[in-house]
Amino acid sequence: MKVHLTHTYAFFIVLSLLLLANNMEAQEPPRVLFIGNSYMQANNLPQMVADIALSMGERLEYQSNTPGGCTFEMHCHNASMTMICEGGWDFVVMQEQSQLPAFPLDSVELYVFPFAQQLVDSIYAHNPCAEPMFFMTWGRKNGDTEFGYPPMDTYEGMDSLLYARYMKMGEDNDASVCPVGRVWHYLRDHHTEIELYTPDESHPSLSGSYASACAFYTIIFGRDPDSIVYNAGLNEHKARDIRSAVHKVVYDSLERWRRPLPQAGFVVDSTDFLNVQFVSKGKRFHEQQWIFGDGDTLQSNDTMVWHTYPHGGTYLVQQMVRRHCMTANIMRFIRMEAPSVGITEKDVLAGISVSPNPADNIAVLQLPEGMQAEVALYSDDGRELWRKVTSDSHNNIALQGLPKGLYLLQIATPEGTVCRRIVKQ
Length: 425
Prior knowledge:
This protein is an alpha+beta fold. The chain has three domains: 15-21 and 261-336, Immunoglobulins (Immunoglobulin-like, Sandwich); 26-257, Rossmann fold (3-Layer(aba) Sandwich), CATH 3.40.50.1110; 345-424, Immunoglobulin-like (Sandwich). The protein has twelve helices and 20 strands. A hairpin with a 4-residue loop joins strand 16 and strand 17 (384-390). It starts with 14 loop residues before the first strand and ends with a strand.
């Protein structure tokens, strides 16, 4: 009896249906906690942000704690920490004392970074869906020579240090950064007629606070600042120039300043008939869930996962990734073609077995007495390793020299074709 074996590889047709990144949706209205010092106190910055939102038909609820000269370390032990722990915030804005982040790095690592982390850790612990946000401040108008640290002696030097340190705090703590200092830098370069400082050359003028408020409105609500109609008492021309600067610096680069979203993505790397290897291409996630479309799900952060489908057909596979309350997902159709069978798989399987499984160097294929079969062994990437025709009831499957992993044994009989997975341990 001649045995015909068609090389029936399981294949997939990937139809991209949807790639949807779902960012955390803030409550309506968003609740914002501002913690800082006199830079926030000046011109009542939190209220100015709320006034901008109100003029745009939106509302912002806020509380603040802004004692003069307050540092992150102080906020870790004052009313700010109590307010953080009460929970219910959508955003928590944090501003360090204006000079400390520009100090020598060893000082910043001792007096700034640990307390920034402590604040953010507390925010996430008590407000899982909140967005921590650092308030990047600005260099003093003519630098700061008070401490005898040359990089701070000029505006450019001090401002560059503040930029670098706030960006590091954002990256290290999975937090956003509102780049007010960058907006001021742009205005200093392109609109020298706009005075951002009070006479002390440190605190913000009304124009400086307005620039800050527009930046916060833009990053919190994600809306174009050019559409803002509230001027905070400034003349229209000056207010428009400030909003334009915020558009260029903040709105045009929102992804740069916001904490990064998780990303979903996967490919089907290999298949062995009804067994599929999914390779995750997701990024920046803490949790990953697979929904395979046949009723089975898997919670796993592994890069590669295998799934065995019960039979051929089309399945909608979904990968969902999550970090904090930010989620992303992707769904794709996977079509599996099972090997053709001449009789029911149950009948064919009744007398066919492979043992032991997992196996070390040899597995034994047991066939019903007198059955002729063509047997082929495949690697997990679909490569045929060997093929033979046998009518023996007891067949040794040699695995010596093969790397550990998953292999597929295809058995074609006159009654039909079945497959068996073998794990080499």
